[in-house]
Design brief:
This protein is α+β, with helices and mostly antiparallel strands. It contains 17 helices and 19 strands. The protein is globular.
């Protein structure tokens, strides 16, 4: 199993990691070689399982000296293949499990890279705080992963991307040096901000080992509604009204097409259609405020005005936490519900909020012309312009034939996004899947700047060598 890696490198890695800190067992390694959609399958001779920042530094140091590439993996929830090794040493952060500090006075929680997002939420709640990053994969997504990919999620509309929620970082640089930038500061204008280079760099500039994450107060009032709407245009108009009525208290505003909702009802056990009749589009809206009862009042006013204006056809408001969870499950299960439906071309794109309807119209026309019979499931964070635009094989069609046309079809979608002033990767990163494609849409200046930064920090491309420029 280790024949593809130099014996001296293997020996040194085992020495610095110690008992329980590594594996060559194919059964132990196998789950880490496949991403959850089964699209990416990798290979590695050696799994490194460091339990501390010092051990991460030792592993990276050994590999840097030997010029042995490393792929870094967190919770393996990525969708662009960047976490799947293709012969490199696989460094997992799963044993970096300590929550080092929770400070309600500084409103910060400091946690190591292997701590899951759900564990961050639970620790914050214990001190009556919240960390406002919402991901469907919160039970498996880890600190190192969501920081390194600058994850978005459902609450970007109000709180911004992950980079807006990070106060400090600790990371091992590509030469094995530990950089300690775990500050609790909101203001620090003393030159370049290295943490912002590391956030969203997909592990190529350093291995994030811990992060100081920004906490917010708990909110006493919360209202969640599921709306049937006639079109994306109506959803965008409703978003503007929601911001006005709530005084900026819109926590989430999610858009879903009917087909995606049907997949969820069909393929996710226990899912029920929340409205009496089907609608072409749906919005899941959530308001949250500090004043008890104010979110509920704002939601009522918002719904009444939307119904009167013909922008809402029907709506249901969650009356209990269980009902709220059930409504959110419809949105969060949009991707898992597609899996039984066959091969899919997935697109994680962003356009200006005002351009969302135009994008959906143009992309639908283009995809139906390019792939007759294809099924389109579009959903996403309409409040920040991020749409997950998924093109599934025709019902009963060939998975292989559909998958074979993925790159050509995605190019059509991405060209539409670019023409509308958007991004071909809104929140999932580029990974191994989109790096080459991104060169088509990034300027020469941007690409050369990224290359120069990487050469400065990782001249031998030790970390995640197949990712980024």
């Amino acid at each position: 199993m280790t024949a593809s890696l130099p014996a001296d490198v293997i020996s040194r890695l085992k020495s610095v990691l110690g008992e329980g800190g590594w594996s060559e067992d194919p059964e132990r390694i196998a789950p880490k070689l496949v991403e959850w959609r089964d699209r990416w399958v990798g290979r590695t001779a050696f799994l490194a399982l460091p339990k501390s920042t010092a051990e991460v530094a030792a592993v990276v140091g050994v590999c840097a000296e030997a010029r042995q590439p490393i792929t870094v993996q967190g919770g393996n929830t990525g969708l662009v293949g960047g976490q799947i090794p293709q012969g490199e040493v696989l460094l997992s952060t799963e044993r970096l499990r300590t929550i080092r500090e929770v400070s309600p006075l500084d409103d910060v929680i400091t946690a190591e890279a292997g701590v899951t997002l759900s564990e961050i939420h639970a620790a914050a709640a214990q001190v009556r705080r919240r960390f406002p990053l919402g991901l469907a994969s919160e039970g498996s997504a880890t600190v190192g992963g969501f920081v390194s990919t600058n994850a978005g999620g459902t609450q970007v509309l109000r709180y911004g991307m992950t980079r807006n929620l990070v106060l400090g970082l600790e990371a091992v640089l590509p030469n094995g040096e530990v950089w300690n930038g775990l500050k609790h500061l909101r203001k620090d204008n003393t030159g370049y901000d290295l943490k912002q280079l590391l956030i969203g760099a997909e592990g190529v500039l350093g291995v994030v080992t811990a992060a100081g994450l920004k906490l917010h107060p708990e909110l006493a009032s919360r209202a969640i509604a599921f709306l049937g709407v006639p079109s994306p245009d109506a959803a965008i108009e409703l978003l503007a009204r929601a911001k006005d009525v709530s005084g900026g208290a819109v926590e989430a505003f999610e858009l879903m097409g009917r087909l995606g909702v049907e997949f969820t009802i069909r393929n996710i056990a226990g899912t029920r259609d929340p409205l009496a009749a089907p609608h072409p589009w749906y919005v899941l809206a959530e308001f949250a405020t500090a004043e008890p009862g104010s979110a509920e009042r704002a939601m009522q006013a918002f719904l009444e005005a939307g119904l009167e204006a013909g922008l809402i056809a029907d709506a249901v408001v969650a009356q209990t936490q269980a009902q709220a969870k059930a409504l959110w499950a419809i949105r969060e299960n949009q991707s898992p519900a597609q899996k039984p439906e066959g091969a899919t071309w997935k697109h994680d794109v962003a356009v200006p909020v005002s351009a969302v309807p135009a994008f959906l119209r143009e992309a639908d026309v283009a995809m139906r012309a390019f792939a007759p019979g294809c099924r389109i499931a579009a959903f996403g964070h309409v409040g920040d312009g991020n749409i997950h635009y998924d093109v599934l094989r025709p019902d009963g069609g060939s998975n292989e034939a559909h998958a074979a046309r993925r790159d050509e079809g995605s190019r059509i979608v991405h060209d539409i996004v670019a023409r509308l002033g958007g991004s071909i990767s809104a929140e999932h990163g580029l990974g191994a899947m989109k790096t080459a494609e991104a060169a088509r849409y990034k300027s020469t200046t941007e690409i050369e700047a990224m290359k120069a930064i990487r050469r400065a920090l990782d001249p031998h491309r030790i970390l995640n060598p197949r990712v980024l420029f």
